[in-house]
Every structure is written in C-alpha cells, then in structure tokens.
Please model this.
Amino acid sequence: MNAVTLTPPPVTAPAPVRGSFWSRYVFSTDHKVIALQYLFTGMAMGVLGGLMAYVFRMQLAYPGESVPGFGVVSPGKYNSLVTLHGTIMIFWMAMPILIAALGNYLIPLMIGCDDMVFPRLNRLSYQIFLLSAVVLLASLAVPGGGFGGAWTAYPPLSSRGIWNHTPLGAPLWLLAVALEIVAFLMGGINFITTLMNSRAPGMRMHDIPIVVWMIVVASVLFMGSVGPLVAGAVMMLMDQVAGTAFFDPARGGDPLLWQHLFWFFGHPEVYVVLLPALGVVAEIITVFARKKLFGYRTILYTTFTTAVLSFFVWAHHQFVAGIDPRMAHIFTITTLLISVPIAEMIFSFIATLYGGSITLELPMLWALGFLADFLLGGVTGIYLGSSGTDIYLHDTYFVLAHFHYTFVPIAVIAGFAAVYHWYPKMFGRHMNKTLGHLHFWGTVLPFNGIFIPLFLTGLAGDHRRIYSYALFKELARPELQQLRVFATICTVIMLLFQTPFFINFFYSMFRGAKAADNPWRATTLEWATATPPPHGNFPHEIAVYRGPYEYSVPGRPVDFWPQHEPA
Amino acid sequence: MSVHAATLDHESLACRRCASGIPAGRLALWWVVTSEIVIFGGLLASYLLFRLRHVSWGEEAAHTNTLAGATNTLVLLTSSLFAVLAHRCATQGDGRGASRFLRFTIALGGVFLIVKALEYTGEIHHGYTLLRGTFWSFYYVATGLHALHVVAGMIAMAVVSVGAGRGRQLQRVELVGIYWHFVDVVWIFLFPLFYIAK
Amino acid sequence: MTTLTHPKYGAIWFTLVVLLGISLLGPLTGSTAFVLLLAFGIAVVKAGMVAAWFMHLAVERRLIWFLMITALALMAVLFFGVAPDVMRDQGQNWGALAAGKN
Model:
C-alpha cells in the first residue's frame, strides 16, 4: 500500500472556561485572554520605559541634580536607563502591543475563527514573553547594574565585561532579548498558520482586513530577519561569557559584523512595528469616514513591496561606521526607494478621508494624529537616508528626534488608537470621551513639544550619547540648554497626561457605558459577535460574502454592509 | 486510508479548516524550518566571510577530524532514513512500527553525540580549544548549536514515539521527521565547511 | 491532506552514502579548487535530495519551495551586503586619498 491519506486527528477545542480566576485569566488558552495579557504587560512595560525617559531627561535638563523620585543619576545608571528605555520600548512595548496583543485579539475574530490554530503554543509564547520581561528587569538588580551599551549593543563595548562594567547585566540583557525573540517567533508562526489555514468559508485573499494582512506580513518579516541576530547574539554571548573574539578587532574579530547582523534585523524590525500601526489606522479611517478603503489592492501590494525592500536598506544605519562607500550609495538608493510605498499608503489613507462623512470619535482622532505626526518622522528620514547628509547628522539628536517621530506615532499614538477603537469589543463598555480628549491633546501636543526642540539641538550638534552637556563648553550654551529643558518639561507633561488614560481605562472597564455589539457600525467580522466575545467567539460558523470595507454602498438601507451578511 | 487518533470531545474550528491545502502542523513546521534557515544562515554566512578573508584558517582547519566528521555524516544520513521509514509506517497506520523506527533514529542521534564528544575531547587534548582562535570559536559554536538541535530533535522524537507506539497523534511522526531532516541538511553543509575545505 | 507515494528510501540513502564517499575522495586529487567544488557541489546535491525526498518537498505545495528559496535568498543578500565591509579589514585609505587631493 503506497498511496495513503493522512489526516490530522481532531484536536480538542478548549472547553468553555468557567473555572477559577487562575484558569480563566492566567492559564487560559483563549486568544482574547492572551491578547489582553500581552496588552497589560506591554502597557506596564511602557509606563516603566516612560519613567526611565523621565529620569534621564531630567538629568540632561538639570545635570548632576537629584531627580525627584530617583535620586542622583550616575553615568553608569544613565547609560543603563537609556539602554533599557530603548530596549523596553521596542521589544517590550511596541511589539507586544502592536503585534502580539492586536494579532492575538484580532486575527481569529477578523477571519471568523474560534481561536488560534495552536492555542497552547500561544499561551506558551506569552509565558516566555513574561519570563523575558522578568529577566530584563532582574538585570537591573545584579551587581554592576543593568546593561549600558545602548539598545544596539555595539561591540567592542558590549562584548567584554571589563569594558562595559556590567559583566552580569550584559548577558542577562542578551538572554532577555533572546527569550523575547523566541516568544515572538512562536506567536508569529501561530499567526501566519492561522491566517493561511483557518479563514472563514468565503474569505478570499482580498477579503482579509488590512490590519490582519499587516500583522501577518510583519510576522513574516520578523521571522525572516531575526535569524542573523540570533546567530549574532550567540556569538556575542560567547564573547561576553567565554572570552571568544568574534567581535574583538584586536584578536581578529570584526565589530562591523555585529552592526550588520544587528541592523539586518533592526531595520526590518522598524517595519515589523510600522505595518500593524498602518493597518490599525486603515481600519479606523474607513470606519469613521464611512467610506471604502481607497485602493485596497494598492495598499496590499505596497505592503508586500515594503516588506521586500526592507531587507535591502539596513546599512543606512552604518554610514559613518566605516562601511564601503560604494555600498553606502546602494543603501542610500534603496532607503529613498522604500519611502515610496509608505508614502503611497499614506496617500491612500488621505484619499479615503477625502469626501468621507468623517466623525471625530476618539479612535479617529488618534488615527489622524498618527498620520500628521508620522509624516514628519517620514520626511526627516529622507535626510538621514542620504549618506551625504547623514554623515553630519549621524548620532545627533536629529536622528533621535527622527526615530521618535516614527516610533511614538507607531507604538503610542496608533497603539492608543487601537485601544480606543477595540476597547468596546474587549470589555463591553465605552471609554469616557472627556477623559479621552484630555488624554489625546495632553499626549500629542507635548509629544511635538519634546521632539521639535530636539531636532534643533541635533542640528546644532548635540551628540546622542552624552551624559551631561555641562561638560562640553560649546554645547552647554544657554540657548541649547533652554531647548533641552523645554523638551524635558514636555516629557513630564506627556507622562502626567497618561494618568487620565489609566483612570479612564480601568474605570470604564467596570463603570463605562455599556457598548452594543457593533458600536462603530463597522463591517469586519469581529463586530459580528457578542460584546465581549465569548470563548469560541461566534455562536455558529460564520461565512464571508464580500470585502471588508463596504461602507456607504448605494441602494443599501444602512451605510455599512457587514462581511458576513448574505446578499 | 485515514489515520485518526483516539476520538476526542470536539475539535476546534481553527484546526478543522485547511484553506492553504497544507495541514496546520506541517505548515507551521515549515515556518519553523524557515526561521532556522536564517539562524544557521546568519552564523554560516559570518563564518564564510571570515574564512574567505583569513586564508590562514586553512591551516587551522587541517586539524579537524575528517574521519569523525564523515562518520557523523553517515550516522545522520542513516538516522534520516529511519525517520522517513517511521513516517512511511505512520502513513500506513502502523504506529508501533513508526515508534520503533523513531527509537532507531534517537539511538543514532545518540551515536552522533558520542562521536562528537570524542572528537571534541581529542581536539581539546591537542590544544585546539574554543579560545585558540576565531576559527575554533566558529567551529565550536556552529557544531555546538547544531548538537543542541540534535538533542532537541531527540527529545521531540522520544515524545512522539511514545504517542505513536500507542497509535496516537501519528501525523506528528512526519513533523518531527521534517525537523530531523533539516538538522541533517545543516550537518551536510557543516561537513564540507569545517572538515573538507582545508 | 496529502496523497503521498513513497519512493524507494533505501536507494536514496545508498546514493547519499556514495556521494559522501566521493566527497571524501576529493582531497586525494590534491587540487584545492577541485576539492572545494566537489565538496560543496555534493553538499548541495545531498541537501537537495534530502529535502526533495525525505522532507517530501518534491510533492509538497509549491508555496513551501518559495519559502525555502526566499530564506536562502535572504542569506545571500546578507552575505553580499556584508562582504564588502567584513572582507576588507585592511582599509582602503579613503580618508588619506581625500586629504591628498585637497
């Protein structure tokens, strides 16, 4: 007998959970619970990262003075605060919220499925992620303190304890990042497989909501780019703990190799977090403009183009590292090229807004805030992508302001947009509008107040990695110091204005106005079930009849035509 | 013939659907292989770059034990044969046969590790340690990482073979096999890189 | 669901072992270029055979092939993007040349 058919055996669906607190909220395999676990962990880490920014901004504004709530910032502590701020915000805030939380929450709901393909793998992925966060925080408590070699961990500084003075902090930092990568690889494989296999009947390639596409493409990007960094991390760990010389130039190693391995991952990583943010914005804009998304296929194919191109741009982070100038030409061209698909997506969003019946609900405010602020981040990137100007601006506050103008809109503004948009579905209640407006303006205005001055100090020559500008005569001028103080005050204001959000978030969870099943009158499948969705999501198997953005279709009694409604 | 394991209460919708035409387990496993390719790819690309730059590494490479490397290649190729025979048994519904072949595969994985250990011992005795030079660092890191994958594969196969012996989860035999073959393929490239090119 | 025709695994294994033997004979010829070409050529053939027949890529959906090729292509991108820097650590005196022209 040769030709045989092999079917996987039936797998038990997770039984409806009615058990204790632990089995319902801690060890649940329900994708929605896991999503909320990621969301809460990500928010907690985000608060921590924000507080770290407060401490080192205070040090920069008032060098040497004791920071309220922290004390005097020593140079070593300053380094480790800056390093952990960067690491936490990328790996423990942006990725868990935008990819893990949204992906877990939305993918099964939006494709009309009851859960992930591998629910237990999903739970394991969160547990490993949590462990990685614990390891990272533990690294702050070891002798020598937390790792202080910046989130890029360039050798030779990062590769020997005798040079970075954190012989325990550095390997623990590396271990935490490695665990986080493992967690996201597991999660990513789950997302990709679920989308590829478990779509509702009738859902074709072009019926999948953009945000699901974006999260899955981001997961593929992550998977394709992270391998060399894992290899590099193994080599780095050997350098740190066993004394090998992979990255030690004095003994035949090459520090540039690490930079390449790191940025081969590091640049696609930018798109790993950007794409889900763009997806969130696409969803929200169509819902609140009551209009079909302009150019669904264009956006989809530009997403693929961005994903492919993002593998060819990494060395623009290294223009001053002594790389081959001929390669710098190539990477300049590819870097400028990649702004085209992103600009195209932004134009599509603006075209969607054009002529729409726009209502400025809270999620829409955040989505528009994203478009406006991200634009500035994108445009300043052009200067840094060109090797000629980058040589002057590299490692200044101009670079820092540029990437915060991309990452804050991505992780904070689009993240809040997503929370405000899907909050009614997640908790069955609405958030308070007044507090929401307060939070929005109290976040977006100070955000610009922080980073516009830093563009200016960067152009004036402020180097990024300086502990105290008082030590540099030409940079300690009062007009520059005033800009730094202004940025610091804005940081404090922005952080303080997160309080209304947390009050709103937890108060509305119990006392907010009850939400209907489809409060935004949206078309995608997550609104087709109860609010909040029960374990198993849909009461019966759901089928898909049309694309995800059928708003204001002529001849229809209502201005939205859900995907699951038969014609 | 369809192979079904013990009937369970009710299956999840997510697992019943198969829009891509590839069962979810196998699809996910191919993504695992993809992510592994870039991990080993990054390491071996780095090694290759260093190797091409330092001609003198050829003299260091002359001290690796080609005989041990070749023996291990043979051992892994044979273990792959057993893994695929286990898969054939599984598709024919012969769980006990699959379990037996998987145990052979695990045993050969053990042989591989023993040969590797003897090889390391010999090299360390002759002074070719991790810190002798970056060639040796690469040698130990690359083969060590590969050996970790061998250990992981042996553990996974032990779990699968217990289930298969009782006729449960037979589709897993193929999945663990694909992983094992991937580990074999990595070794197929490590062999010329470290043992033949001198 | 797969409909799978099992090939003769024993014969494939035997071919693989023969190829291994040939790659071991290479060094006897004494020509380095030939040895390298033979060893890596055989490695590619062996890996291809294992992938095609043991991992059943030959009968797997085309999608998986693309996946594997893409992953390998990414590694080629990495290699050639890094090579100009890592393989030229002796320095090309870019700064000195520019200074000389001034």
